[in-house]
Amino acid sequence: MEVPLSPLGLVARGLRLYPGRVAVLDDGRQLSYAELQRRLELLSGALGRLGVVPGDRVALLAPNTLEALECYTAIPRTGAIVVPLNTRLGASEYRYILGHSGARLLLVDITCYARVEEFLPEFPDLTVVIQRGRIDGRLNYDELLWAGPSLPFDPEAVAESAVLSLNYTSGTTARPKGVLLTHRNTFVNAVNMILALRLTADDVHLHVAPMFHANGWGLVWAALAVGATNVPLPAIDAQDALRRIRDHGVTTLCAAPTVLTMLLQAAEEDPPPSGVRLAVAGAAPPAAVIRRVEDELGWTVHHFYGLTETTSFITYNEPPQGIEQWPLLARAGFKARQGVDLPLSGHARVVRKDMSDVSPDGQEMGEVVARGNVIMSGYYRDPEATRQAFAGGWFHTGDLAVRHPDGYIEIRDRAKDMIISGGENIPSLEVEGALYRHPAVAQAAVVAAPHPHWGETPVAFVALRPGKVVGEEELVQHCRDLLTHFKVPSRIVFVDELPRTASGKIQKFLLREMARSDNKT
Amino acid sequence: MEVPLSPLGLVARGLRLYPGRVAVLDDGRQLSYAELQRRLELLSGALGRLGVVPGDRVALLAPNTLEALECYTAIPRTGAIVVPLNTRLGASEYRYILGHSGARLLLVDITCYARVEEFLPEFPDLTVVIQRGRIDGRLNYDELLWAGPSLPFDPEAVAESAVLSLNYTSGTTARPKGVLLTHRNTFVNAVNMILALRLTADDVHLHVAPMFHANGWGLVWAALAVGATNVPLPAIDAQDALRRIRDHGVTTLCAAPTVLTMLLQAAEEDPPPSGVRLAVAGAAPPAAVIRRVEDELGWTVHHFYGLTETTSFITYNEPPQGIEQWPLLARAGFKARQGVDLPLSGHARVVRKDMSDVSPDGQEMGEVVARGNVIMSGYYRDPEATRQAFAGGWFHTGDLAVRHPDGYIEIRDRAKDMIISGGENIPSLEVEGALYRHPAVAQAAVVAAPHPHWGETPVAFVALRPGKVVGEEELVQHCRDLLTHFKVPSRIVFVDELPRTASGKIQKFLLREMARSDNKT
Fold this sequence. Notes:
2 copies of one chain form a homodimer.
Chain A: H1 7-17, E1 22-26, E2 29-32, H2 33-49, E3 57-61, H3 66-74, E4 81-85, H4 91-101, E5 105-109, H5 114-117, E6 127-131, E7 139-140, H6 141-146, E8 163-168, E9 178-182, H7 183-197, E10 204-207, H8 214-226, E11 229-232, H9 238-248, E12 252-255, H10 257-269, E13 277-280, H11 287-297, E14 300-305, E15 315-316, H12 328-335, E16 340-341, E17 347-351, E18 366-371, E19 378-379, H13 383-389, E20 395-403, E21 409-414, E22 419-421, E23 424-426, H14 428-436, E24 441-451, E25 455-464, H15 472-482, E26 491-494, H16 508-517
Helix pairs in contact in A: 1-8, 2-3, 7-8, 9-10, 10-11, 11-12
């Protein structure tokens, strides 16, 4: 017998088995699984009354809230495709995505409405529903929900190979691309999460990673499948995160490395409970940050690697036997590697241009490519980009990595972030790793600036920890002690804060523009 | 992207990631994952040279050995269908299964050869290969293996919906039926095992359950997927099992309840290390046995429920938060329930004859039915039995159960083992549970005997613990103290040993015959 492999089936099990457990804790609001089920059925009914049919695109623009969580879970029940919108985009990107996706319904949190209001008249056929507030002339989410009747859900009524979501990439270099993820992709990713984080009904998961990203949302599915409690964090606010961790007995969370540095900083004033299992993802975490999290917070770091195009994660740093007894420094260095294939993700390789495997010597660099059930079905309405991404039958990540003799892969850089100076490769991550080892450095990003003689030269942007002082000269000397000479930044720019995407990734294209326009070397 | 969901993909990952770890420990023989991979590729090559092609049925008659483990893993790589033969059948059953399955190749362990030798001339087209020994005129397994060349394996070359194995049910009442299990069935079951037993590369699994049963073999897939060590136990010998547990640092095993009573008995002389995670399956375990395992051995019991037709398990006794702190008696009683749906198994229900759900009151009995990706595709060449098994679109287990208010199901009896006396249902398991609570009782089985007035009456067969003595009268009084009067056995027959199937299930049909022919009531 075959029944559809869909995260909706996993969640249906969670709703069936754990009616009395707490499903969502959103400050004042506490919902049991039975109450969540009631709301999901009401929402399914409301979507049906709005005319949503299978294959429709339904866009959602919201921070991490109960409403977002239930929309991400209920929209696919109708057979419609969720289009999650990043809350930090500009009006032109929202306009592009709404047009490209052909969305017929937009659910928008009141706090985000101003970002889309102006151009909405261009989409006369788009139905707009406001969450957590009221706008004259617009539908209100709660009213819609409670108007009834509700619609029960049959987890076998969805098609495994159908598209569940259309996630637009952040588009740091080009127009956003629409990543098509199927029910089956999403199911396999959720099971990987349950396995790798060992999630159970006893867990309380703080949703730090935005749910509009594949990794944030993936953890909603995983947590609801096992009957865990979901605590949405509506904004990346480190104090608020630490408060919820303490107040709600949080056991697991997932965050990008830059969010970790914010948590570490806030924790200096207000130390959180130890013992949290922390999934780090979204960018390569510097070993120094991992070390601080394990040492200063007493949390266990679980490192995951992947892209939107891989439903979130392909590899993870599987803990070798006894690693928790290793010396802190060795452990943090090891955990900075992206690791090995997740149990169900498929097969990730590091390959040369001719698609042969690099030697597993920790030296030879190649591109990470992968095949497996977490790989997207393609880019929406973009056959050319899809063809390029799947050249040679493998999905190309655009990440450059080495493979160590023990089989663990380690990302050296995004292909486009690699600095090439006098014919030598300078991985920006390596230079950043050195900067992070300086006690005054809170955040660091290294990009290429044009250079008349060498072609490119590394320029570092650094934000210092509060109360710490260090000059450019001292920091350059610190790098000289740790790096080959040509990798040492030719200039260091001190900034208050690095520009970040909604998921906490540093926006290097902005830094490159700054380095280019401001080039004095 | 979709790639086939097959346990072969899981194992390919294990072979890729853990080349240096110990894959199999078979007394004198120790194989790393790299060595196992080499042998699997040699075996695949050998099967190809014997002309095995996709869809062929390949039968295997062997106890739990390295050879059996590698055959179960390598045969499906060729696209052929494994037909595992129970080592305890009679010649007429082997003859039936070989004929019905149309097997073209039989791999047979030297210790089992005598059971089939006589009738093999009836199968002139069947190629026979002898394992762990030599028979004149027959092919030898090792010679075949090392003749080379080997054949590498592409985990994407199998079809997810293709049949992986054809498992014949033990046929206690009728002719054996051939259960068709697909790659996808087997994949989902293996992932369930990894999740529920929390298997990792650090585990050492003792294969007590025979690999020719779906549950034993399922654990081979699960253990190889995560890089754990496999210790095959060739015969159900409690002393030998305890020795291997100690010598090899065994952390997990799976056994039927009757095997547990044997282990408990042997452990009185020779206490094994504590801390083992014990999966109990194959029959409903009496609470008294669970209590003894947790109390006397210090092991943790994980209770699974399912049938060959469900690839092995549909439900498990998911441990509620803090259960390990419960009083022993309450904990054992709870763990005797068959529990809730496994994470990926689908949906098990307890239904009335009209397919409506029984009330979850722990009282109303109904049949366990299920849908999901662990359910077989059907019975081979038996459309009528398949139709009956799937009446109403749900697979019918033939097990009678109640559902408790917390959602946990509890099997009351096999439908065919229920005793009906004067119009009252007497679940044989309930009477057995009472008998097991007497300190002198090692094994107990209760069956119906014909009765002129009441229709049926319960008769108990009891084997005592060594050195213990109890009379029929005392045991009947013990039952009177615990059971409603009409459930008390009308007669108790003391035996040295209960007749068991290869998986340790008590053969109640034999006891029923004894009770019938020997009826003095």
